[in-house]
């Protein structure tokens, strides 16, 4: 372990994407998606593209994944995307390609991956 | 004022008598000699090397290895006055109370002493290491001006602190030989014998005391030269975590298995702190952490600090993890998936991540004690006729799995606080092993236990069954903890000094 390290910022590309979270999402709101039977769920996701990207990997951790079954689960009372805020405190975490994410994020992202 | 004596200038066959012979002039040997300087006893400090690096002397440390890749035996230690502090990093952190306890999920754990036994000696140890005022877990109050701690929700990991041995320009931390040679020279009762290689510890009889040490010197060309004899009343072996075992095993003329080795423990349980690199990526949604996380911070009143993440006692017990000290290292770029994971998670948590920054995490880990991680003697001999050591290195999968649980908990606490998240970078043993450096902290080969069946030395660091032979250094640590050893071995050595004052009186 050395004592001093040089300080680098995130890569420019990464910043652009991470930055989008705080920049008003104009680009993403402008994006049009074909209607689906699950729009009540998908509309909770601010940016579907990054969620879909994460979701593609998340699906691999979900044996027997089926969209209708997932939708039933997500439509249960209290299972909105904002449930993610309590996931860590409740110990509901999922590992997706090494990323430790709230279980609810992984589930909504998995859904997004099927319609984006 | 006495100056150091070069053993090579003494006639072959010279016999020296002394009250106390200390074998090894590293931080343990030097600190012990200085602690006893005013005790009224004659002290002979026997150091294999001179005052600077010499490849002939260094090559006496060479030896073969098997098992997991590990630092070459002559690469992770230095054989001249000051020992391995001539290239140490100066990282200091005291042992925690739990490190001494029998942990039922850690086979062979448990010291015969508690942390309280070392408490009186830590202030002096801290002074010897020149690590500044004692802050450690009280450091938080001192760093307020520099920035906040990373926000972690309640859980199993907390922010703790390292302190550093003082740096001097290009010379990094305290080199004990350079720093304390004048003090050794000034002490009337201490004689420092340089270029003096102890090659044998002679017992009067089995169960009897050490009555003689054999010494040898090297020629300029690295061959065997003079043979000398020391007749001591008491002996402390302070030759480092590997060489302590080598000398005991090789001193086998009276007890055929080697001194202290009646229960086949000398050389077993060797351990070090693995330092896996880039174990995880930590993203902080709010941007860069306070500088004391990924750099050392020098406070105006002297101490040099760096923050680290440690598991709590409760978490360690509940989740059966070992010690680990996780550090924030250099910033890293996220790939597309990483960026997506951060954006998707931050949005779901309702957090602005527009300034998010990602960092690589590093770590110093504790290993489970393993009797098969072991030093043995080989048939190869060094130029002085001493059998060379062989190391068999092991790391168990459960060591990695345990540390992974600690990292996952850190990630959970970041998410629960909505301050960040982490990615675990390694899944397989091959990935962990490929990432690993070593601390070059040599533990365990003469472990401490009240029971001779489970330890080589007792709670006073005396070799079981030999009334006047003691061991100083981290070879007596039965478990390693994740803490760097030197501050702790200094405290234990100072405690040994107090004990010797009593028994030698
Ligand atoms: C690269 C590196 C970085 C490190 N960084 C840190 C750190 O940041 N923090 C930390 O706490 N620790 C660190 N360490 C470990 C630290 O250096 C050791 O814990 C410490 O030096 C051990 O002290 P010692 O006196 O027990 O043994 P040593 O330092 O090994 O000293 C033993 C002495 O005995 C002498 N000797 C050996 N054999 C004989 C013999 N037969 N006869 C006579 N004399 C003999 C040797 O020449 C040597 O001078 C580091 C080690 C290395 C290699």
Give an account of the 3D structure.
The complex is a heterodimer of chains A (about 120) and B (about 500). Chain A has seven helices and two strands. Helix content of chain A is about 50%, strand content about 5%. In chain A, helix 4 crosses helix 7. The termini of chain A are far apart. Chain A has helices at about 10-20, 25-30, 40, 50-60, 65-75, 85-90, 105-115; strands at about 95, 100. Chain A has two domains: about 1-30; about 30-115, no CATH class. Chain A is mostly helical. Chain A is globular. In chain A, strands 1-2 form a two-stranded antiparallel ribbon. Chain B has one domain (about 5-505): FAD/NAD(P)-binding domain (3-Layer(bba) Sandwich). In chain B, strands 1, 2, 3, 7, 8, 9, 10 and 21 form an eight-stranded mixed β-sheet that branches. Chain B has a four-stranded antiparallel β-sheet with strand order 5-6-14-13. A four-stranded antiparallel β-sheet of chain B has the order 15-16-12-19, sandwiched between helices. Chain B starts with a strand and ends with a helix. The mean pLDDT of chain B is about 95. In chain B, about 20% of the residues lie in helices and about 25% in strands. Chain B is α/β, with parallel strands linked by helices. Chain B is built from twelve helices and 21 strands. Chain B is elongated and about 80 Å long. Classes of the chains: A mainly alpha (about 120), B alpha/beta (about 500). At the A-B interface, helix 1, helix 4, helix 6, strand 1 and strand 2 of A face strand 15, helix 9, strand 16, helix 10 and strand 19 of B. Bound molecules: flavin-adenine dinucleotide (FAD). Flavin-adenine dinucleotide binds next to helix 1, strand 8, helix 6 and helix 12 of chain B. Flavin-adenine dinucleotide binds near residues 84, 197, 485, 486 and 489 of chain B.
């Amino acid at each position: 372990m050395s004592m001093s390290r040089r300080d680098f910022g995130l890569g420019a590309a990464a910043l652009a994407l991470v930055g989008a979270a705080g920049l008003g999402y104009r680009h993403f709101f402008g994006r049009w998606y074909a209607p689906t039977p699950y729009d009540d769920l998908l509309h909770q996701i601010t940016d579907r593209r990054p969620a879909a990207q994460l979701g593609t990997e998340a699906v691999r951790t979900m044996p027997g994944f089926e969209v209708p079954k997932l939708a039933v689960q997500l439509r249960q009372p209290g299972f909105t995307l904002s449930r993610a805020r309590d996931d860590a405190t409740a110990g509901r975490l999922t590992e997706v390609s090494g990323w430790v994410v709230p279980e609810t994020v992984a589930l909504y992202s998995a859904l997004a991956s099927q319609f984006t | 004022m006495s100056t150091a004596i070069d053993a090579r200038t003494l006639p072959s066959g010279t016999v020296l008598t002394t009250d106390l012979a200390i074998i090894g002039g590293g931080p343990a040997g030097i600190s012990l000699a200085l602690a006893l300087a005013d005790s009224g006893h004659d002290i002979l400090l026997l150091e294999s090397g001179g005052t600077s690096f010499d490849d002939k002397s260094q090559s006496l440390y060479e030896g073969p290895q098997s098992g997991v890749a590990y630092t070459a035996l002559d690469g992770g230690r230095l054989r001249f006055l000051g020992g391995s502090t001539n290239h140490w990093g100066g990282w200091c952190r005291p042992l925690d109370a739990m490190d001494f306890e029998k942990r039922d999920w850690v086979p062979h754990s448990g010291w015969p002493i508690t942390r309280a036994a070392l408490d009186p000696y830590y202030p002096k140890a801290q002074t010897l290491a020149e690590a500044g005022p004692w802050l450690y877990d009280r450091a938080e109050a001192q760093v307020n001006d520099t920035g906040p701690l990373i926000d972690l929700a309640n859980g199993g990991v907390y922010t703790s602190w390292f302190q550093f041995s003082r740096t001097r320009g290009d010379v990094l931390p305290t080199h004990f030989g350079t720093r304390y040679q004048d003090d050794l020279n000034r002490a009337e009762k201490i004689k420092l014998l340089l270029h003096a290689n102890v090659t044998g510890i002679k017992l009067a009889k089995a169960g009897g005391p050490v009555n003689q040490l054999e010494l040898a010197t090297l020629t300029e060309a690295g061959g065997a030269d003079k043979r000398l004899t020391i007749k001591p009343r008491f002996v402390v072996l302070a030759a480092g975590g590997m060489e302590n075992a080598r000398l005991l095993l090789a001193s086998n003329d009276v007890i055929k298995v080697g001194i202290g080795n009646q229960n086949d423990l000398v050389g077993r349980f060797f351990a070090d702190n693995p330092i896996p690199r880039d174990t995880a990526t930590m993203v902080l949604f709010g941007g860069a952490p306070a500088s004391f996380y990924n750099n050392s911070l020098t406070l105006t009143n002297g101490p040099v600090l760096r923050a680290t993440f440690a598991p709590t006692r409760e978490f360690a017990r509940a989740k059966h993890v070992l010690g680990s000290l996780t550090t924030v290292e250099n910033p890293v770029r996220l790939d597309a998936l990483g960026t997506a994971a951060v954006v998707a998670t931050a949005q779901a948590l309702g957090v602005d991540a527009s300034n998010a920054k990602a960092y690589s995490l590093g770590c110093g880990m504790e290993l489970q004690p393993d009797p098969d991680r072991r030093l043995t003697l080989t048939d190869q001999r060094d130029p002085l006729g001493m059998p060379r050591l062989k190391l068999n290195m092991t790391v168990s999968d459960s060591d990695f799995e345990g540390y992974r649980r600690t990292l996952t908990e850190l990630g959970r606490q970041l998410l629960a606080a909505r301050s960040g998240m982490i990615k675990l970078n390694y899944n397989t043993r091959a990935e962990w092993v490929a990432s690993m450096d070593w601390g070059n902290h040599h533990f365990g080969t003469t472990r401490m236990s009240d029971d001779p069946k489970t330890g080589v030395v007792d709670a006073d660091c005396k070799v079981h069954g030999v009334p006047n032979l003691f061991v100083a250094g981290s070879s007596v640590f039965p478990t390693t903890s994740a803490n760097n050893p030197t501050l702790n071995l200094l405290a234990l050595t100072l405690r040994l000094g107090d004990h010797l004052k009593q028994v030698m009186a």
